[in-house]
Amino acid sequence: MWNVFLSLVKKDFQMLIAGKFLIVALGSLLLYTIFINFGYTNFMQAELYHVYLYDPAGTQVGYSDQILCVDSSEELNQALSADTNGVGIDTSSGEPLVVFYAGSEKADNHRKDYALSLLRSGKRYEAESVGSNTPEMKQRREITCELLFIELIAVGFLGIASVLFKEKQMGVIRVHAILPLKKRLFILSKITVFLLSDLVFAALLTMFNIELSGAISILPAILVQTALLSMIMALTGFACAMLLRDFKQFSLAYLVIAIFAATPVFLTANTSVKMTWVRYHPFYKLYNELKNAYFGTMHINIVYYIGVFLALGILYFFVQAVFYKEMGKEG
Question: CA 199 to CA 230: how far, in whole Å?
Answer without folding.
Answer: 8
